[in-house]
Design a protein that fits this description.
The complex is a heterodimer.
Chain A lengths: L1 E10 L2 E11 L2 E6 L6 H9 L6 E6 L2 E2 L4 H7 E4 L11 H11 L4 H14 L15 H13 L5 E5 L7 H14 L4 E6 L2 H7 L2 E6 L2 E7 H6 L5 E7 H8 L5 E8 L2 E7 L9 E2 L4 H10 L2
Parallel strand pairs in A: 3-8, 3-9, 6-7, 7-8
Antiparallel strand pairs in A: 1-2, 1-4, 4-5, 9-10, 11-13, 11-14, 12-13
Chain B lengths: L1 H12 L3 H15 L15 H24 L2 H5 L5 H35 L4 H32 L4 H13 L2 H5 L4 H7 L6 H4 L12 H22 L4 H20 L13 H4 L5 H6 L4 E12 L6 E11 L3 E5 L5 E7 L2 E2 L1 E5 L2 E5 L4 E10 L10 E3 L10 H5 L1 H4 L3 E8 L6 E3 L2 E4 L2 E6 L4 E3 L2 E4 L2 E4 L4 H22 L8 E4 L6 E3 L3 E4 L6 H8 L7
Helix pairs in contact in B: 1-5, 2-3, 2-5, 3-6, 3-7, 5-6, 6-7, 6-11, 11-12
The chains are: A alpha/beta, B alpha+beta.
Chain lengths: ~290, ~525
């Protein structure tokens, strides 16, 4: 179990992470929040990249402030941007990072092909990283993060910039990995969380405000999401309404299907519908 | 560690632009000045090429940092358990890379000189290897780290401007243009800080590593390491505090160092070594005394121009007031006679003493920190110069007014080097004898019979000089109807510009003398030139 107690971080006068306490178990936890909410700072502290100003982090008996090198053996981290050393091959890059993780070279020689198979890169094992697409680099990043079978896997905005196919493949990979360990998946794409996570941490202004299940977050929008089919002229009028938040539109000929969040129905034809995680998240985000 | 270094080398080799630049540059650095690369003594003169190489390595270091930042590699490796090992390995990799570049560069030059000019000697290789190790290899290594540090802290185009600024302030060229005072620049120069001096005044210090260089390299190492640690562990408070402390401690090194790496000077030997008295001063000279014996105890400072000595002079005087000549660079700290203080008045290059008794021993504590013929590893104290208290008339014209006295010399230096003297060596660093004055030549000199000359000159270069002087003297002898001839012992030493002589010895600057110098040394009083 990962126990976090009164963890905080400041950059100059700006509080990047307000005092935070929570406990996380095995499984996939989504870390949702808008840009600048402090998600990356939080993950960087957990990954040991940043030092916290105060507070403690414990994983079982391991203390972040005392056993840094041991802690790092149990942590896998995929930063937001991963490039690798462009002139090395995927195998060499993983060997390099394996050595830096204190892994046995001979063992690495057998592990690397299977890990690359897991991330669908087995055919590119001896290709240089500079020839990889963004998605392939992300998968290579995940490969380096799980190379040492960490107990805690931290993944920061992994699907940003991936094409839909890559994104689905990536979600499946994360899902598989989450069966054996704690995975914290930081993102502002709610679909990623909805598809992969069991629990979600909602973060805003450097503060983790809610730790809940996907259903609980979704439930925040219950009774506030409406569906409506209207013509485009009416749609233009509805769009001007600042009391509503349109979450989805689709056009067919002159008609527009839309979903919106509002405390009350704004149109006689609007019907209440079941909310999605994104809508629950939007309700939470706009809560004053 | 080797595996990590191997990956770094793979990264370098597969991006062949850098190996290509380094190799091409080495070829250019030999090809362009090939006419001057005749022997190993020219190595310090390759300073411009070394400066360009250090700039390239600054940029290489910056490019390494740019790669890490652009590829977000830092965030990936910083959280690995062996991050510290990675940092050590990176340093080791840069050290090995610098060493490789240095070895290829050095061997290429030695090879070129050996094949084309066949003027390689074992001594020359050892000397130039030590010199280049300190003035080429170590600066190469430091340049990579500094480039890396600068780009890491300023990861944009301005970092290259900053690199040029830092490079400009720390390159040996700064010793020529003097943007920073010598006392600062000498400590900051990433290379040979004495290029201008060794090529104009302190020829003997060329290719020599003095004690100050060792300390300066340690000083720079502390700074570079502090900056590197600060850069690599900028998110680790403890290491940041350690780096700042290390930086603060390193700043104390120049303050408390007993040695400095630099040699100060005005680029001329004239003012320091020639005695010239005004008419007014000549009137005040009182020479009704005789010095029978001098006993010197020297303490060579092995730093810049530092020398201290205590001299005891056994004197017989007919008067209470005597005048001695002593060059202005030499400061008298105390004068006593039989433990009583002696009243002293300094008039430029003259010293007037009021003796408490007419016969006895005068003791003086004298020191200099500006006399050019004293260097960190060299000393050229010649019998004809008033670096010690002597008769003013002898100091002005030692050839015609030289007086023989007994001398006893003790020499102490923290950096022992071979010493040649005109006196007999009684023991290690102890000389005795009767002479017109004592001579101490510390540094690289060769002695063949009665001819002594600096090792950087070949005998074939020295012999024509002697021949020319003899010719001029024969011509002068005919003109003035005299029969002067060169004294028996010839010393070629770059101690002053021109020639000085006493009846036994002549001292000639092999780099700089003229026929008027020959006249001044041997034909004064023979009419106008």
């Amino acid at each position: 179990m990962l126990n976090i107690h009164e963890l905080s971080k400041k950059f100059g006068k700006k509080k990047a992470l307000q005092p935070t306490s929570l406990s996380l178990n095995k499984g996939i936890v989504g870390l949702l929040g808008p840009n600048g909410a402090g998600k990356t700072t939080f993950l960087r502290i957990l990954s040991t990249y940043y030092e916290a100003d105060s507070g403690t982090i414990m994983f079982n008996e391991l203390d972040w402030s005392k056993d840094l090198e041991k802690v790092r053996k149990h942590i896998g981290y995929l930063p937001q941007h991963i490039g690798g050393l462009p002139n090395l091959t995927a195998r060499e890059y993983l060997e390099y990072l394996g050595v830096l993780r204190g892994l046995d070279i001979k063992q690495l020689a057998t592990d690397i092909p299977s890990i690359l198979r897991e991330v669908n890169l087995e055919e590119r094992v001896d290709d240089r990283i500079k020839s990889f697409s963004g998605g392939m680099r992300q998968r290579l990043g995940i490969a380096q993060a799980i190379l040492h079978s960490p107990d805690v896997l931290l993944v920061d905005e992994p699907t940003a910039g991936l094409d839909p196919e890559e994104r689905i493949r990536f979600r499946n990979l994360i899902k598989r990995l989450g069966k054996e360990r704690l995975v914290i998946l930081s993102t502002h794409i709610t679909e990623d969380v909805a598809m992969t996570c069991d629990q979600v941490l909602l973060m805003k202004n450097g503060s983790i405000e809610q730790y809940a299940s996907i259903q609980e977050v979704t439930h925040l929008a219950k009774g506030k999401v409406w569906a409506l089919e209207i013509d485009s002229t009416t749609y233009e009028q509805v769009r001007q309404n600042t009391d509503i938040l349109i979450t989805l539109t689709s056009r067919m000929d002159d008609m527009v299907d839309l979903r919106f969040i509002a405390s009350d129905s704004i149109h006689p034809q609007a019907t209440p519908v079941n909310p999605t995680l994104e809508e629950g998240y939007m309700v939470w985000l706009n809560k004053k | 560690m080797l595996k990590i270094m191997k990956m770094e080398f793979l990264q370098l080799i597969r991006q062949p632009i850098w190996p290509t630049i380094f190799i091409l540059f080495i070829i250019v650095a030999i090809f362009l000045p090939r006419a001057n690369i005749t022997d190993l003594t020219v190595i310090p003169g390759m300073v411009y090429f070394i400066m360009v190489m250090t700039l390239l390595l600054f940029i290489y270091g910056a490019e390494r940092a740019r790669l890490e930042i652009n590829q977000q590699f830092d965030e990936t490796i910083s959280v690995t358990p062996l991050f510290r090992k990675y940092n050590r390995s990176t340093l080791l990799y840069w050290l090995v890379l610098s060493l490789l570049i240095y070895i290829v560069f050095y061997l290429a030059i030695v090879g070129y000189i050996g094949i084309v000019h066949r003027s390689i000697t074992v001594g020359g290789v050892l000397e130039s290897f030590t010199y280049t190790l300190f003035c080429w290899f170590i600066p190469f290594f430091y340049s990579i780290i500094l480039g890396y540090v600068i780009y890491s802290w300023l990861p944009n185009i301005y970092s290259y401007l900053m690199i040029i600024g830092v490079w400009f302030l720390t390159m040996p060229y700064n010793s020529m243009v003097g943007i920073l005072p010598r006392e600062w620049g000498g400590w900051l120069i990433n290379g040979d800080p004495n290029i201008i001096e060794i090529n104009s005044v302190s020829f003997l210090e060329s290719l020599v590593i003095n004690n100050g260089y060792y300390i300066q390299r340690i000083f720079m190492f502390l700074i570079v390491m502090a900056l590197y640690l600060w850069t690599r562990y900028k998110r680790n408070l403890k290491i940041k505090i350690f780096s700042i402390s290390l930086l603060a401690v390193s700043m104390l090194v120049p303050i408390f160092s007993p040695y400095v790496p630099y040699i100060t000077g005005k680029g001329s030997l004239d003012s320091a070594t020639t005695l010239s008295l005004t008419e007014e001063q000549s009137v005040t000279v009182s020479e009704e005394y005789q010095i029978n014996k001098y006993t010197f105890n020297f303490k060579h400072g092995a730093s810049n121009h530092d020398l201290k000595y205590r001299v005891a002079m056994d004197i017989t005087s007919n008067t209470d007031h005597i005048t001695l000549a002593l060059l202005q660079d030499f400061k008298i700290n105390t004068v006593t006679m039989s433990t009583s203080p002696v009243k002293m008045k300094r008039l430029g290059q003259l010293v007037q003493l009021e003796l408490p008794e007419r016969n006895g021993t005068i003791e003086m504590e004298i020191e200099t920190s500006t006399y050019s013929p004293i260097g960190p590893t060299t000393a050229q104290l010649v019998a004809t110069s008033a670096w010690y208290p002597m008769l003013p008339s002898e100091a002005q014209d030692p050839y015609h007014h030289g007086v023989k006295e007994d001398y006893e010399l003790y020499w102490d230096s923290p950096m022992p080097h071979p010493i040649l003297s005109n006196l007999d060596e009684n023991n290690v660093n102890h000389w005795v004898g009767k002479a017109y004055g004592p001579t101490i030549l510390m540094g690289k000199f060769d002695k063949i019979d009665n001819l002594t000359f600096p090792s950087y000159k070949l005998l074939q270069q020295i012999e024509p000089l002697t021949h020319t002087i003899n010719e001029v003297m024969q011509k002068n002898n005919q003109e003035y109807n005299v029969s002067e001839k060169l004294p028996t012992h010839l010393y070629y030493a770059p101690v002053f510009n021109g020639i000085q002589a006493n009846p036994d010895e002549v001292y000639i600057n092999p780099e700089s003398y003229s026929t008027s110098d020959i006249f001044n040394a041997f034909y004064r009083g023979e009419g106008n030139q």
